[in-house]
């Protein structure tokens, strides 16, 4: 984890899957709203570009080039957060594995396993690690329901994301009185690289810009 600006008394937002799409848009919007952003993603170059954009607007970020599917790395991340910040104000989980669309009988075994690892098992592990950090600051965990469960050819993605959302809903029900707050948002279709893989040739002009959708989601979160 590389350290850039000291967070001082700023609120801390952890964005898993922050390098592109909605994750990057949320990171920029949160930085503009006064949060120190801890940006987690595998792609170093994209994280550095995100950091440049945040700095231009006077924001502050710390980059964590890590794979959410690697449990030891996430353990290290949680320990570093606890030591440096003591808690988390917002965790927004945007990391996904988008397996190629396929009829159910032809889903590749490796794609199926990676979908379950990244979209389901990694989230369970992150909940275990981040819940005490969120509770320390009366924080909020934010998930995004775009599972498309039951739609044709979305077997791997739909099943693994539906399981993630089911887990998040259970956690939400369990923490109503104790915290942390758990929110499940339903983002509008956006021109992301994941969507482009699912719907090649789609007219991006008909989709909501990631920046405006990020602002809407955060506005709803504040209500």
UniProtKB/TrEMBL annotation:
CDD domains: SDR_c
Pfam families reported in the protein's UniProt record: adh_short
Cytoplasm found in the keyword field: no
Gene Ontology molecular function: oxidoreductase activity
Coiled coil: none
Keywords: Oxidoreductase
Keyword Chloroplast applies: no
Record-linked InterPro entries: NAD(P)-bd_dom_sf, SDR_fam
GO CC entries: membrane
Family according to the record: Belongs to the short-chain dehydrogenases/reductases (SDR) family.
Protein name: SDR family oxidoreductase
Organism from which the protein derives: Paracoccus onubensis
């Amino acid at each position: 984890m590389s350290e850039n600006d000291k967070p001082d008394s700023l609120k801390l937002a952890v964005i898993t899957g922050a390098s592109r799409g909605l994750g990057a848009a949320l990171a920029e919007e949160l930085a503009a709203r006064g949060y120190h952003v801890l940006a987690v993603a595998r792609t170093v170059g994209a994280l550095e570009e995100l950091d440049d954009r945040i700095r231009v607007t006077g924001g502050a970020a710390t980059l964590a080039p890590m794979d959410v599917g690697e449990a030891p790395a996430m353990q290290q991340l949680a320990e570093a957060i606890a030591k440096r910040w003591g808690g988390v104000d917002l965790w927004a989980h945007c990391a996904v594995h988008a397996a190629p669309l396929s009829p159910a009988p032809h889903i590749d075994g490796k794609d199926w396993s990676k979908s379950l690892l990244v979209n389901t098992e990694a989230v369970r592990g992150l909940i275990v690690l981040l819940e005490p950090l969120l509770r320390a600051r009366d924080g909020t965990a934010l998930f995004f329901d775009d599972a498309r469960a039951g739609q044709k050819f979305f077997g791997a993605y739909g099943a693994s994301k539906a399981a993630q959302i089911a887990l998040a809903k259970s956690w939400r029900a369990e923490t109503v009185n104790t915290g942390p707050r758990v929110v499940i948002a339903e983002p509008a279709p956006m021109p992301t690289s994941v969507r482009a893989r699912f719907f090649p040739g789609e007219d991006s002009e008909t989709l909501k810009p990631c920046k405006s959708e990020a602002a809407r989601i955060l506005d709803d979160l504040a209500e």
